[in-house]
Design a protein that fits this description.
Elements lengths: L2 E5 L4 H6 L1 H4 L2 H16 L21 H12 L18 E4 L6 H22 L10 H35 L2 H25 L10 H23 L5 H28 L7 H35 L19 H21 L9 H5 L6 H10 L6 E5 L2 H17 L8 E5 L9 H15 L4 H6 L1 H11 L11 H4 L10 E7 L6 H20 L5 E3 L1 H25 L1
Antiparallel strand pairs: 1-2, 3-5, 3-6, 4-5
């Protein structure tokens, strides 16, 4: 029930049979002109039928005729959606859900796979089912992020514990520094659960970030207590170390929290959510450290002296690097800073999700299907109120395609709508179709005899009746029909991969111009495009960057 429809082939016979009614009027008129010209020139062995623009030839052999027929057939989509090697058949399953969240996607894929495996087993044949497309891409990306977050959190915890152990040389000290931070992280995640309800791709790094920033409070407290313990008992050492470090630690906490809190004023919602949770987490880390850590130290030292704080240690010699090393650092760092300033404007932003995935193509099946069918699985859907509006929008896009000066060619591959197959020009179309039929019967008998099957098929095509929207097969109509049957879609497909950031911008800019021109003509539109959403997100990120940098610095 979650699948609206599924298909694996095109209704080629319908389009062959009704080409005369479905083709644009301009194409019908061109065929008529070219066919008339060839008949008048008395070309006996030609099967061109006006389908190419070359000058007519006086003689055409069978191989050349077959080549021309083959060129014509390229315009007709293949019946089956399969790859060139005919080893894979692609079934396009359209989800009928109002929205596809990660949970819905996972449930959907499990159900589809259950049905597929049952069918495969029932067939007794060695088929294999694999899945691709936007839903799979979403699942793979989400699974990768979730897996990485678990690994990152464990690695961050292990690294922090190891480095703390090296710094304090006391396992309990390392553990006690981390325990308050763990409590602060748990509270921060609780705040996120009660206020926002979820983490996002940025705020999900919270555990690693709070571990890195939060442990410094405990490190200062423990090491300062170690220093005071040289000449004071443990309680007095703590009474000296806590106020001495707490003020500086609080200043650091407030500064870090304020810098994160600046993100609350960003336009990108993922930044806002992360900024709020991170700021709260930093302050909680300071609070938990200075309320829990001294108590843990005192309780442990009463029963296990020296297990947290090194007792009665002598004054340790300070390590001083050679002067030439210090001079090298002093001289070298400004040069490194200058190089950084020079490189700053040259730093780009990676906007390819495939590249960010890191482990190769996240959706190989979807990629193969797109290549095999010569079209994207994620075109932009532009909703309009009527088929007439769809025709006008397609004309706008066609104009934009002609105006495009990109040396690589227009970013627009095609637009498709029901306006392509439903025409209201029958009064002008019918005489042209009748003239084409008449011209066909004026071809010499030997041409008819040699190519009777092809010519008969062509005659059938130009004898097609007038077709209305209800006459178009449902398998074609449903691609352009919303779930509530209100309005119709225009599918807007790019000519190149959208994984390149510049191509992505070009496509979305063209889409925005088309929508703007449609609005000026009084055409109401609504755009549904994952690429458009991605570009808007990147534009928000770019717009927020200067504000975040300057405001965080001022804070």
């Amino acid at each position: 029930p979650e699948i609206r429809y599924a298909e694996y082939k095109n209704d080629v016979p319908f389009f062959r049979k009704n080409a005369g009614s479905l083709l644009p009027l301009e194409e019908v008129q061109r065929i008529r002109r070219d066919l008339d010209a060839k008949v008048k020139e008395g070309i006996e062995d030609s099967m061109d039928l006006g389908l190419d623009d070359e000058a007519p030839k006086k003689k055409t052999d069978d191989a050349e005729i077959e080549k021309m027929i083959g060129d014509y057939e390229k315009a007709i989509p293949p019946e089956l959606m399969e790859d060139k090697e005919k080893t894979e058949l692609y079934i396009l399953a359209k989800p009928g859900l109002a929205s596809l969240g990660v949970d819905e996607v996972k449930k959907l894929l499990v159900q589809v796979d259950h049905v597929a495996q049952a069918q495969i087993q029932a067939s007794g044949k060695p088929f294999k089912a694999e899945y691709g497309g936007p839903a799979v891409f979403m699942k793979v990306f989400n699974d990768g992020v979730s897996k990485d977050l678990g690994v990152i959190s464990i690695v961050a915890l292990g690294a922090a514990a190891t480095l703390l152990l090296l710094a304090t040389r006391r396992p309990f000290a390392s553990l006690f520094i981390l325990l308050p931070i763990a409590g602060a992280i748990a509270c921060s995640l609780g705040v996120a659960a009660f206020t926002i309800g979820h983490l996002n791709i940025i705020s999900s790094l919270l555990v690693a970030i709070l571990l890195g920033l939060g442990v410094e409070f405990g490190i200062h407290l423990v090491l300062r207590t170690n220093e005071a313990r040289v000449h004071l008992p443990i309680e007095e050492a703590l009474l000296e170390a806590v106020p001495e470090t707490m003020e500086g630690a609080f200043t650091g906490a407030i500064t870090n929290a304020a810098a994160f809190f600046v993100l609350v004023f960003a336009s990108f919602s993922a930044y806002r959510q992360f900024g709020m949770i991170a700021a709260i987490g930093i302050l909680l880390s300071w609070l938990f450290t200075y309320t829990l850590l001294p108590a843990l130290i005192i309780l442990t030292e009463r029963f296990l002296p020296g297990w947290v704080i090194r007792a009665n240690q002598g004054k340790q010699a300070r390590f001083m690097p050679p002067r030439w090393v210090l001079w090298g650092i002093v001289a070298g760092l400004p040069l490194v800073a200058i190089a950084g300033v020079w490189a700053l404007p040259r730093v780009g932003l990676e906007r390819s999700f495939n590249a960010l995935n890191g482990d190769g193509m996240p959706d190989p099946v979807g990629h193969r299907a797109s290549v095999a069918m010569g079209s994207t699985l994620t075109p932009a859907f532009i909703w309009v109120r009527s088929v007439d509006d769809a025709k006008k929008l397609e004309e706008i896009v066609a104009t934009l395609k002609k105006e495009d000066k990109n040396p690589r060619g227009s970013i627009i591959q095609s637009t498709v709508s029901l306006g392509r197959v439903v025409h209201d020009d029958w009064a002008e179309r019918k005489p042209n179709l009748d003239a084409i039929k008449k011209a066909l019967h004026r071809l010499p008998d030997d041409v008819w005899k040699k190519h009777e099957a092809r010519l008969t098929e062509f005659e059938t095509a130009v004898s097609a009746p007038e077709l209305g929207l209800k006459d178009i097969p449902e398998t074609f109509r449903r691609k352009f029909t919303p779930l509530d049957d209100d309005g119709t879609f225009v599918l807007f497909s790019p000519s190149r991969s959208m994984d390149d950031a510049n191509e992505l911008d070009d496509f979305v800019d063209t889409l925005e111009i088309a929508v703007d021109r449609a609005k000026k003509q009084g055409i109401e539109t609504r755009v549904m495009s994952e690429n458009r959403i991605a570009v808007h997100i990147f534009r928000q990120v770019f717009a927020d960057a200067p504000f975040i940098a300057w405001s965080a610095t001022l804070v």
